[in-house]
């Protein structure tokens, strides 16, 4: 769940609720953004540790786990069934195919140009640039696993394409196209989660997520800056 | 006026589009879009009626925070599904870009003035969320008391 971008309090609650319903009354759990430590409160079983290395966002997975744990609490499914479904969560929850994500990225980019900059003329070109930016991010995340490099290159690609499109007469305002094309890349979920985690008193996870969001925002910024410099 | 209607439509679409990127459940997409529209309308009305970036973003964030918890209760889904797409139209993208551009061009003075605007906007959205959390806690308390009072009589 943490990998998919849920907030810490929800993870904590869910684990405790599952443990409670499975008959472990004294279960204790300690959740941070990089790992989970949990003990069942039974003397002859040790604590378990799980570590979390990569974080992305997949809110449907969060919703699905939430739903499963609720139906487990309501005794609609037994613990074996519940465990099986959790193990196969990646197969149950389908992600949108790439082309739907691309359209999503395009819509976000195109519409926000109109909202932020009152610029109707650049809708379609921004739509395309946003799609390309998201595709760069998507494939780099799959093939090159270096953190923050994919954000950097995607931002550079967006800025370069925007400037080129204006030079070829397809767009009107390079600045507006860049603003729109960057919007799908902005780390929105980590930022909101950082605020929420810090507010709910989880002073380790909140700032940790905040730093993560800050670094990816900086990577985006440098990407744009470099493209602006060389074009 | 025409532009306003187009903008409303665009805000709704941007909420849905962001939902597609972060893989929202299908049922939540439409509502997330409307949530984004509601938050942005609050922002738009306030910034045009009274002005002031801070208060407009504050009330936008507050509205999104409260409404998404209500929807979450109604649809029995986590509230984070609705508030993240809701925030998309409020993000200070333009100012952040201007700040970066000024840094890259070496005009640090305007860069810092844009940067402080970004911090101010982001801070007021975050503050709106904090107050939304408070409102939700108070609402829960009131409902709780109300149910208890009913059981007594």
Automatic annotation (TrEMBL), chain B:
It is a multi-pass membrane protein. Keywords: Cell inner membrane, Cell membrane, Membrane, Transmembrane, Transmembrane helix. Residues 8-135 form the Threonine/Serine exporter ThrE domain. Signal peptide: none annotated. Its main location: membrane. It comes from the Bacteria. Pfam families: ThrE_2 (PF12821). InterPro entries: ThrE_2, ThrE_Dicarb/AminoAcid_Exp. It is found in: Cell membrane. The chain crosses the membrane at residues 6-24, 56-74, 81-100, 112-132. Belongs to the ThrE exporter (TC 2.A.79) family. This is Membrane protein. It comes from Lentilactobacillus diolivorans.
